[in-house]
Known about the structure:
- This protein is mainly alpha-helical.
- It is built from 4 helices and no strands.
- The longest helix is centred in the middle third of the chain and has 11 residues, at 16-26.
Amino acid sequence: xILKEKIRQKIDxxxxxxxxxxxxxxxxxxxxxxxxxxxxxxxxxxxxxSRGQ
Length: 53
């Protein structure tokens, strides 16, 4: 009986992205992303040193 209850409470991995997308759309403010305004910066030197190069 306990096993059946646990199975019912799990969310399939295929369903999770759909739920996340729906919540993002529902909770959207319509203002866009902060990255639309300031862009994305990448520190390539830090990336290279973290890979051991």
